[in-house]
Amino acid sequence: MSLVFGAVAGVALDAVFGEPRGWHPLVAFGRLAERLERRFNSAGRGWRSHGVTAWCLAVLPLTLLAALLAQLPGLGWAVEVLALYAALGLKSLGEHALPVAQALRLGDLPLARAWVGYLVSRHTSELDAAGVARAGTESVLENGSDAVFAALFWFLVAGAPGVVLYRLSNTLDAMWGYRNARFERFGWAAAKIDDALNYLPARLVALSYALLGRTALALRCWQRQAPEWDSPNAGPVMAAGAGALGVRLGGAAIYHGREEWRPPLGEGAEPRARDIERALNLVYGGVALWLALLLVLEVLLA
After folding, report:
1. How far apart are the first and last CA of the chain?
2. Distances, alpha carbon 113 to alpha carbons 87, 116, 117, in Å
3. pLDDT tens digits, residue range 212-254?
4. Which structural domain range is residue 100 located in?
5. Per-residue pLDDT tens for 32-47?
6. How many structural domains does the chain have?
7. Where do transmembrane segments lie in this chain (predicted)?
8. Phi first, then psi: what are they for 12, rounded to 5°?
9. Which of 51, 70, 73, 95 is deepest in the core (most CB within 10 A)?
């Protein structure tokens, strides 16, 4: 089975079943990462070299295992598809984002705040309706890139080992990639490796969002606003996504009890409930676009 048809199969499995229920391989990996962090970053005293060692111990053996299993005669294709399925979060993204939009539509702001708190790391208990819609829209745009498109990209580049390498690296960035006293040195490698792995996918995602929305505005926002963001990958994705939707994102947000000002993204009105759904449609449309283009190329090159 080609990687293109494997990608279609992996996306189809995710669409039907969503995330594995009861047990997810990333949960077990998270426990491993916690043990490694306690071993190599005791009391937050780990250096960059300790972070590199811990990253290698966490990621490389499992990536090698995925590569070996993918070569099994008769079973390798199943390993490829299941690796992508386990790494994708497309259905899960909708399952977490749509309740936010539904609660806003019903005027239940406390419920909307609670639901959006599952999507973002910022403080949500005092957000107004526009703030909840902004947080939800931003999360869909950014997580669409991280949890969906980048996994697809690395699967198409390198199959099961590629998607395993990416997903584990992205998970370690989420756990270790903080700029605080505990992780600033130890988590440096995890953050930088994740930035490198997301560099090309993020720009393809930004282009996809632009093509599926208000293209000229999205490209202009990408060019002008993305460089203002600290993240080299979230900036293009979210600026292009906000422009494609014609809404204003960014601004003030409270993280860990401290208000942070983030540069503006996009142009237009304050986001509303429907903009969360429109952001999801950008992600769904982008996945359909990628798969359609890949299938056409597969047929033409066959």
Report:
1. 13
2. 27, 5, 6
3. 999 999 999 999 999 999 899 999 999 999 999 999 998 877 6
4. 3-301
5. 999 999 999 987 888 8
6. 1
7. 52-70, 147-166, 282-301
8. -65, -45
9. 51
